[in-house]
UniProtKB/TrEMBL annotation:
Keywords: Glycosyltransferase, Transferase. SUPFAM superfamilies: UDP-Glycosyltransferase/glycogen phosphorylase. PANTHER family: GLYCOSYLTRANSFERASE 1 DOMAIN-CONTAINING PROTEIN 1, PTHR46660. It comes from Equus przewalskii. Residues 151-310 form the Glycosyl transferase family domain. CDD domains: GT4_PimA-like. Transmembrane segments: none annotated. The keyword Transferase applies. The gene is GLT1D1. This is Glycosyltransferase 1 domain-containing protein 1 isoform X1. The keyword Transferase applies. It comes from the Eukaryota.
Amino acid sequence: MEEGCGVPGTLPCTWDHLEAAGHICILKDAFDFESPSEIANLIAAENVEAALALHLYRGGRLLQGHGIPFGVIFGGTDLNEDVNQGEKNKVMGKVLEEARFAVAFTKSMEEMAQRQWPHAKGKIYVQSQGIATVPNPAFDWDAFLQRSEINQSADNLHVFLLICGLRQVKDPLYVVDVFSEWHQEEPNVYLVIVGPEVDPVFTREVKAKVRRTAGVRLIGEMPQGDLHAVMKSCFVVVNSSVSEGMSAAILEAMDLEVPVLARNIPGNAAVVEHGVTGLLFSEPQEFVQLAKRLVRDPALEKEIVANGREYVRTHHSWQAERDTYQRLVRMLEGSSGH
């Protein structure tokens, strides 16, 4: 019988793991559904037998009460922000009661969830994100710079890359003003923001700001292979989020041997050890200080890159992630074999 995995807005790599185990998966974005009844229609039309949701509130609440077994993956904002809103907290507790399992990216996320919902203690598993990067070998970096209106002939060009969906929690404008001031002193540094337009109102704000800010560029969503190629060629990957579960972009940068400069928030500090696997900043001025330090200290850059790569290889194995998800999905099948 056909095995359907409805996956509202989950990680495409998790999907790969499940397909590799012989499941047929349907990848859906939770934002595309207005109500659980639309999910019921999807389940009936596609003969869905089990589901996996990313984000306890956004994805998980859509899966309640349909009579199909499901698991959830904590996203980040569910544990960092939504828990503080009474109604959402209650809904997420109910989702956890019904879910067969829940996956947390870090030990601290697991502890946070257990404090909020003690009844879920036995069903939370910790599995860090597995990372595999595949840069497109045919990608043309010079053409990319040209398209971004970046002066390629600038002596000693340094491109800082900020990868994020355009929504407020990612706070892409956090370092824009200080970066622009620095660019005016040193025209060879550029900040490029890359990512999909998630929140239309906020996207307009970001576009307007970038248009009038020297040294900062905004590029739309890119295919993953191209994005990895851009990461590989840039100088530093930046993360300025207010809240993160576990940033895939940070881990991918480490895998691609690119230094990481990240905002000092719990989700980032869980993977970036300051001065060892990357650098952490707490305010915009400190961001510029650390960015300048990286430009002027190639030995530090080299050390951070080596440590970052070692960290990802050791703690974010793609194969280990695959084994975990294939094992957990067997729980949804209601048997250990298959």
